[in-house]
UniProtKB/TrEMBL annotation:
One annotated GO molecular function: acyltransferase activity, transferring groups other than amino-acyl groups
Source taxon at top rank: Bacteria
Pfam families: Acetyltransf_1
UniProt protein name: Acetyltransferase (GNAT) family protein
Length: 148
């Protein structure tokens, strides 16, 4: 599938929301309108570090999204890129959309001099991991979290 990757703009709001909420449902997290409004506000606020890219198919339909942001890496004294979310519409999966979105984030990171692009995924997300194994290197790091 031929796709075009570009930053999300205010005009993308209506097409972005179903993809964002689909991402939430995929990971079984609440998919509320309020949460969508908050995240969209971050994406459209130039003072917020969270950015978004969209993938459009040949007909101009938004078929995939990703969100990313810089993060400081004190041990390396560098800034890296964290790819937070990546979602492709079910009908567009398997056509290279996810790889194109990852390449778009990587290009943005390179242009800004960021040292690395990192992301996490569920251990049982075999389909995504097959792609990630082709385009990136799995690290030895294990993720932990505390909910304060």
């Amino acid at each position: 599938m031929s796709v075009t990757i570009a930053p999300l703009t205010a005009a993308d709001r209506a097409d972005w929301e179903p993809l964002y909420l689909g991402y939430c449902r995929f990971y079984a997290v609440p998919d509320t309108e309020e949460k969508a409004e908050t995240v969209w506000g971050w994406l459209m606020d130039p003072s917020n570090p969270v950015e978004g890219l969209g993938a459009r198919n040949g007909e101009g339909a938004l078929v995939g999204i990703t969100h990313f942001r810089p993060y400081h890496r004190p041990v390396a004294a560098q800034v890296g890129c964290f790819l937070d979310d990546l979602f492709v519409a079910p009908g567009a999966r398997g056509g290279g959309v996810a790889a194109a979105l990852i390449a778009g984030v990587t290009a943005a990171a390179k242009a800004r001099g960021w040292s690395v692009v990192r992301w996490i995924t569920a251990a049982d997300n075999a389909t995504a991991r097959a792609l990630y194994d082709r385009v990136a290197t799995e690290t030895a790091w294990v993720t932990y979290e505390i909910r304060p």
